[in-house]
Amino acid sequence: MLEITNLVKRYGHNEAVLKGLDLKVEDNSVVSIVGASGAGKSTMLRCINRLVEPTSGSIKLNGAELVNVKGAELRRARRKIGMVFQGFNLLDRLTVMENVLAGRLGYVNLYQAISRRFPQADIERAFTLMERVGIAHYANKRADELSGGERQRVGVVRALMQEPELLLADEPTASLDPRTSEQIMILLQSLASELSLPVLINIHNVAQAKTYTERIVGLRHGKMIFDGLPADFNKDALDAIYGGIEAPDDAITEQPGAQAEEPRHDPV
Ligand SMILES: Nc1ncnc2c1ncn2[C@@H]1O[C@H](COP(=O)(O)OP(=O)(O)OP(=O)(O)O)[C@@H](O)[C@H]1O
């Protein structure tokens, strides 16, 4: 379980970007974080994986405090947090397998990392996960030969190679076409359930958030102003979060094609 208490982040002497956030996310739970540009969504994810230093507050993952840990303890904490990126963040000239094995770098020694001699168990785990997401046949292909959806699957497997206790996804579908986006959202949803992982997804596409996640958290100016079920995320909630400025046209309607595969929850 992820437990955030009174999280504050201030960059320099500016006004706080996160103003006392509280959030609990159970295992198996897929939560989307929505909010206008600048609301603090990325800062929140980056505080959790400590790419950004929180100003104050507490972030606990399965009881272990993440705020203020340093050195080896921070490295150990970080490897428990898998991250999936909008731009995939793959090493294009390396193969799919090499990219996937990069997820183990936090676990192997320097010699193994430099010589890329990963334990057999890691290679087997890599194949199992690649098979699970349908990319095992691409193991020896270069990453830049894959489509966007395939590349994102590589990104997901690399994150899972860390044996994470939490998965963070920062706009994981923003670079993908609608159909591929749906597939990636369904994949994240299924993996959360299969691996008993809490998953937090920053997402601009409110229709996808409503269809493929079971809980929506809405941020505005660094404060949480909505935390509830997709069914309760109505026009008032949308206006409160986006202030009528940035709300996408289709935000409260069903995502076209959402029925193409079986989502776990009925679209609302
Ligand atoms: N490294 C930084 N230094 C100073 N200010 C920053 C830094 N990173 C983000 N900010 C500011 O913090 C605020 C929140 O930014 P953040 O990227 O967290 O928002 P967001 O909701 O993720 O936006 P978007 O949807 O556009 O990615 C913005 O005003 C931004 O300018």
In brief:
The chain is of the alpha/beta class. The protein has helices spanning 41-48, 71-78, 96-101, 110-115, 120-133, 148-161, 178-195, 206-212, 235-242, and strands at 2-9, 18-25, 30-34, 56-61, 64-65, 81-85, 166-170, 199-202, 215-220, 223-228. The model is unreliable at 253-268 (pLDDT under 50).
Describe this structure in words.
It is a peripheral membrane protein. Keywords: ATP-binding, Cell membrane, Hydrolase, Membrane, Nucleotide-binding, Translocase, Transport. This protein is α/β, with parallel strands linked by helices and 268 residues long. It has a domain at 1-79 and 212-268: P-loop containing nucleotide triphosphate hydrolases (Rossmann fold, 3-Layer(aba) Sandwich), CATH 3.40.50. It has helices at 41-48, 71-78, 96-101, 110-115, 120-133, 148-161, 178-195, 206-212, 235-242; strands at residues 2-9, 18-25, 30-34, 56-61, 64-65, 81-85, 166-170, 199-202, 215-220, 223-228. The strands form two sheets. A six-stranded mixed sheet has the order 6-7-8-3-9-10, sandwiched between helices. A hairpin with a 2-residue loop joins strand 9 (215-220) and strand 10. Helix 5 (120-133) crosses helix 6 (148-161) and helix 6 packs parallel to helix 7 (178-195). The longest helix is centred in the last third of the chain and has 18 residues, at 178-195. The protein starts with a strand and ends in a 26-residue tail after the last helix. 41% of the residues are buried. Residues 253-268 have low confidence and may be disordered. The structure holds adenosine-5'-triphosphate. The site of adenosine-5'-triphosphate has 10 residues, from helix 1. Adenosine-5'-triphosphate binds at residues 11, 17, 35, 37-43.
